[in-house]
Amino acid sequence: MERLGEVCRRLMFLFRRNRFQRELQEEMQFHLEMKARALRDAGVAPDEASSAARRHFGNTLLLREASRQSWGWNTLETVCQDLRYGLRQLRRSPGFTLVALLTLALGIGANTAVFTLVDAVMLKSLPVTDPQQLYSLGADDNCCEMTGLQGNFTIYSYALYKELQEHTPQFTQLAAFQAGAMPLAVRRSQGRELAQPYRGEFISGNYFQMFGISAYAGRLLAPADDHSGAPPVAVMSYRVWQQRYGGDPTLIDSTVVINSKVFTLAGITPPGFFGDRLTGDPPDFWLPLFQLPAGHRTAGRPGAGGDWFNPRCANCAGWRTRSLQPVVRSEGLRPGGAGGRRGHPWPLRRSSGTAARAARRLHRSHASPACGVASWLSKLRRESISESNGERTNYQRLTPAFLSVTHELAALLQVHIPNAAFRGQSLYAHLRS
Amino acid sequence: MARTEIPPGTLYLLILKTLESGPRHGYGIAERIQQLSDQVLTVEEGSLYPALQRMLIKGWVVGEWRQSENNRRARYYRLTPAGRKQLGLELNEFQKVMAAITRVIQTA
Question: Is A65 in the B-facing interface, judged by CB distances under 8 Å?
Answer without folding.
Answer: no
